[in-house]
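A.,

Following up on our hallway conversation. Structure tokens first:
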């Protein structure tokens, strides 16, 4: 069952690079995803490996169901009912294609899987380097006042950078002491991710900060003392107050009030106004197509039809509703929305129930999973996360690696207990 060391190292490198390259090289995470998948399929050719994989599939069946439900519903919708675009299925397939990789990764030693933490660190630091480069080259900005990279817009860029920063810091082991160099690198990675998010101006991502902070500091022994909580609370409050006083933050939040006032006056030619009108129109589409929606990838044509009937403004016609749940309601109806909730719940609970495990490798991986899933859910309130191939690939692969870390560590603990009897 155990892969040879060459295979282990190839996969370890691919795992680390999957997080390192997400915001640095277009398609970088995807290349790693398919490299691991190819090795996993080869691994599962052996009957003994398949038997072990079946055991893991039964143990983590809720996770497997959650990852599979949405791609299955959309596949049936597109191929059988001929509703939706085939291209819209592409990112969703990453969710189900990662299952063989997860089953393979559970057979690897846990300490190799844990090295994903350095992918988070490297990815966040590279993002920080990009921020510094853009600050000294303002003419290279893709959008005035909003930082992004060359292949994605400021919202997913800022959200992903923020996620990388917190994943890097949350990867600090919850039991063992950490050396000064590791601590310094992970603090620097956190700051780099936050800096990139700040200059992206992605307000939706900032909504996730309370959850990200909680999942990062929870479960740590030093947080049990009142003194530690006071110090951490004071530091966080100081950082939030200082940041909120900067011109960029004040301006971005001031725009919300201005946009809402204009929206009440019937003007939708603002960022917030268009989003609110888009949400309202998406709900209207769901009411008219409640069972299977209008088809994945067909939101924009449906919005144009609403506009032609005078039920919405043509200016809001968009490929996505800028809200994961509302997009699913409009495009896939109640069945697709239930599948999305299964995805969220299946992945979330897989990590939630392990967060208080006595083994710190398991509890740390569990909290990292909560950072990933919780952050993705909250980001989805203001942007469609999963239709972006980069995001779907990252979510699928990183959740698989973290859950495989838990499964692998449990296997090793069970084996150790058997040996000591």
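Then the amino acids I'd put at each of the 421 positions:
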């Amino acid at each position: 069952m155990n892969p040879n060391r060459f295979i282990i190292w190839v996969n370890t490198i691919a795992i680390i690079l999957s997080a390192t390259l997400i915001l640095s090289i277009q398609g970088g995470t995807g290349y790693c995803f398919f490299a691991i998948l190819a090795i996993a399929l080869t691994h599962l050719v052996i009957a003994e490996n398949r038997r072990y994989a079946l055991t893991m599939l039964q143990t983590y069946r809720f996770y497997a169901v959650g990852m599979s439900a949405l791609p299955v519903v959309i596949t049936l919708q597109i191929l059988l009912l001929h509703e939706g675009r085939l291209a819209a299925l592409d990112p969703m397939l990453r969710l189900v294609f990662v299952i063989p990789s997860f089953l393979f990764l559970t057979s690897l030693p846990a300490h190799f899987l844990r090295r994903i933490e350095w992918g988070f660190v490297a990815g966040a630091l590279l993002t920080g380097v990009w921020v510094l480069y853009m600050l000294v080259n303002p003419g290279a900005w893709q959008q005035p006042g909003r930082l992004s990279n060359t292949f994605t817009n400021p919202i997913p860029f800022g959200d992903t950078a923020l996620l990388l920063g917190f994943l890097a810091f949350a990867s600090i082991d919850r039991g063992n002491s950490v050396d000064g160099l590791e601590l310094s690198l992970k603090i620097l990675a956190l700051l780099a991710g936050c800096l990139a998010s700040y200059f992206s101006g992605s307000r939706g991502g900032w909504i996730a900060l309370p959850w990200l902070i909680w999942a990062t500091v929870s479960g740590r022994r030093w947080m049990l003392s009142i003194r530690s909580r006071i110090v951490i609370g004071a530091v966080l409050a100081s950082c939030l107050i200082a940041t909120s006083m900067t011109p960029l933050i004040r301006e971005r939040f001031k725009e919300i009030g201005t946009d809402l006032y204009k929206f009440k006056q019937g003007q939708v030619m603002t960022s917030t106004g268009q989003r609110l009108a888009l949400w309202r129109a998406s709900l209207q589409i769901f009411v008219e197509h409640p069972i299977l929606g209008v088809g994945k990838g067909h939101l924009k044509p449906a919005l144009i039809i609403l506009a032609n009937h005078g039920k919405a403004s043509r200016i809001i016609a968009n490929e996505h509703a800028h809200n994961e749940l509302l997009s699913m309601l409009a495009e896939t109806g109640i069945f697709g929305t239930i599948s999305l909730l299964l995805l969220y719940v299946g992945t979330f609970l897989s990590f939630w129930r392990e967060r208080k495990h006595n083994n710190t490798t398991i509890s740390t991986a569990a909290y990292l999973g909560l950072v990933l899933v919780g952050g993705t859910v909250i980001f989805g309130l203001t942007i469609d996360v999963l239709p972006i191939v980069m995001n779907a690939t990252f979510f699928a692969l990183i959740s698989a690696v973290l859950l495989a870390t838990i499964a692998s560590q449990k296997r090793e603990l069970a084996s150790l207990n058997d040996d000591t009897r």
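The chain is about 70% helix and 0% strand. Curious whether your intuition agrees with the design.

B.
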